[in-house]
UniProtKB/TrEMBL annotation:
Protein name: TetR/AcrR family transcriptional regulator
InterPro entries assigned: Homeodomain-like_sf, Tet_transcr_reg_TetR-rel_C_sf
Organism name: Shewanella scandinavica
Amino acid sequence: MTQVPDQPTQKRQRGRPSRISREAIARAALEIGVDQATIPAIAAHLKVDHSSLYHHVAGRNDVISIAAELAINELDWRAPAATDWRSELIILTDAIWTLYERHPGLAESIHQASVTPSSGIRSFAESVEKLQLKGFSLDEAVLAVDILVDMVGECFLGWWSTTKPEADGRTRKERIIAIWEDEATKLPDKAEQINAMVDIMKVGARKWWERKRDLVLAGIAVTHAQKAGGSDKVQT
């Protein structure tokens, strides 16, 4: 079992063992959903008085931080040693997408820098090191991992925001599609291009992300091949 460091904000009194811990609080936050994990909600989930949580955590930001640490520590993102670099990066970003889907609100907290999990920093460094072992320079490896980690988060957040319901009962995505379709009828000479984007929106986030990812991977492959061949220029 993954352990969350126990760093209570107050010294515990002697007596009967506590019914709650930092790890229990972190798990409760993940079960509720990071976006819904308030101190009262977590206390209700654990069936304890909310004031007792402050013996273990400093507040909501502390809760989100330890929840993120726990979620990333338990994420299955490591590829087998013999995996090629391209598959390595696909496995990594697929795992990150799954992490964000599994824990609503976590992507937003990480990408807004509300939390900076040390487990995420370690995972980043390990991913870079794996690319170095596969022939990438340090600079190439850092850039490749950083681009893809940023992109998967931004793509996920962009699409996730469109799933929220609006006052008329439609999702934001449905409203945006309707606007684009209306523009296609108003601009028949641009309808083909506009409707192509409408089709993308209807297919869904994951498929569109995979196409973006594959385009970036193709660019990384060209750059890496050129550098390995001793050329400073990237031909496209």
